[in-house]
Design goal:
Helix content is about 40%, strand content about 15%. The radius of gyration is 21 Å and the shape is elongated. It has a two-stranded antiparallel ribbon with strand order 1-2. Strands 3-4 form a two-stranded antiparallel sheet. By secondary structure, the chain is of the alpha+beta class. It has 2 domains: about 60 residues, Ubiquitin Conjugating Enzyme; about 80 residues. Strand 3 and strand 4 form a beta hairpin.
Length: about 140
Amino acid sequence: VEIVLEVHATPQYPKEPPSVAIVDCKGLDQHRQKHLLNHIQTKANELSPGLMLVALCEEAVEKLSDMNHPDGDCPLCLFPLVTEEHQSETLPFMKLMSCFHCFHSECIIRWWNWLESSKQTGSSKSDNATARRNRGMCNCKVAF
């Protein structure tokens, strides 16, 4: 996950805790963004009226580390990346660094192998159909 966090301290700081907002975010859905902001704002209220800017940044890093697991379904097989019942038993997953899309490792490897075999067999018909079907989709670069 990646976020740009804005911590805004008013002239009344440190008597009043700063406000916290997410400016930019990758890899966190709205629910987890709200959870993170609530957690950091609660921490700010706990530490008030003391100095806390560095402590809030450290808290955000720690919380993001805890939340650094994929959310949602694998776009290839449409099964959950992490099942709610077995959050500790996640299947290996792969994250594309440019866009933060996540896939089960097995799914992306199977897709990659299919793509390579299609190129080797020279199936230009299927390549053209695939190109038309994939127009407008994420144009991520896959790197292993």
